[in-house]
From TrEMBL:
Residues 224-291 form the Cation efflux protein cytoplasmic domain. It comes from the Bacteria. It holds the Pfam family ZT_dimer. Residues 16-214 form the Cation efflux protein transmembrane domain. The keyword Transferase does not apply. InterPro entries: Cation_efflux_CTD (IPR027470), Cation_efflux_CTD_sf (IPR036837), Cation_efflux_TM (IPR058533), Cation_efflux_TMD_sf (IPR027469), CDF_Transporter (IPR050291). It is found in: Membrane. Gene3D superfamilies: Cation efflux protein transmembrane domain, Cation efflux protein, cytoplasmic domain. Keywords: Membrane, Transmembrane, Transmembrane helix, Transport. One of its GO terms (molecular function) is monoatomic cation transmembrane transporter activity. The lineage of its organism: Bacteria, Pseudomonadati, Pseudomonadota, Alphaproteobacteria, Hyphomicrobiales. This is Divalent metal cation (Fe/Co/Zn/Cd) transporter. It comes from Xanthobacter flavus. GO terms for cellular component: membrane.
Amino acid sequence: MRVPTPTDLQKERAILFAILLDFSVFVPYLVTVWRIGSLAMLAELLRGGLLLLVEGLALLTLRAAHRGRMYFYDFGIGKLERMFAAAIGVLLLLAAVFILIKVMDSSESEPLPPFWVAAALGLVIYNLFTNLAPLVPLWRATRAGTSIIVLSQFRARIAKAVASVTVVVCVAIDVLFPHTEVGLAADDIGGLIGAAFMLVIGGAMISEALPDLLDRALAEPLQMKVNAALAAYFDRYEQLISVRTRKSGTIAHVEITVGFAPGRTIADVSSVTDALRQTLTAAIPDADVVVIAAPYDPETRSA
């Protein structure tokens, strides 16, 4: 089993820290939302709970990759990750619709005891802290080495922090002015903003998952890097037979078959395929590159 490097452990600790902070606020948030019925807090609770599942899966995937536990799956578990992400995206869309229905059916709120006013204000401020605090370790983890999982968590945390600022403002107005039009409007606006965030995040998760589930070829910028590498070694092979690319989760898979004249030695052919593979791996981080050598056949149409 592979031993994680200090950089690997730094990335894992950054995500674990974020998960622990999110979990520490989830149960108190749930109780407070049940008691006061704030739509802004409800939207934050639903979004945070679903994204907490994504964070947990990201950590498990990262730990398995760092310890070499994916050798049973030659192409990784990218499809499973994307299927899970798509399912969470659908749940986020459904949660957004639920919040929108609640906003349309909202009525004047009842006065709250001082304890619940203080609890609501304290929780939304603490929740803002839980979204801001992990930014520094996550940023350091992204600087320590390329990791799409850690980078995506860093970007998601920024989005959650921005949304939490809105929740703090709306909940503060709602609980401090419960019998006014301003208080009711603030809660509705907070719920609508939360629903909008869920629609955007859920839609993005689904749109990112579908191409990988359907084995779509790499995006054009990555395809251009493949073409550039092939062009750089164009005079060192006789024929480009095929180029196949796809993504499995965060891993780009590139399979290239090139033809060589029968008279060329194994050492010569290996030097070309190894150099081409190393060039592509350097150009596309975290890529799985396979270069296959085949006999040159003049009757076979080049790719």
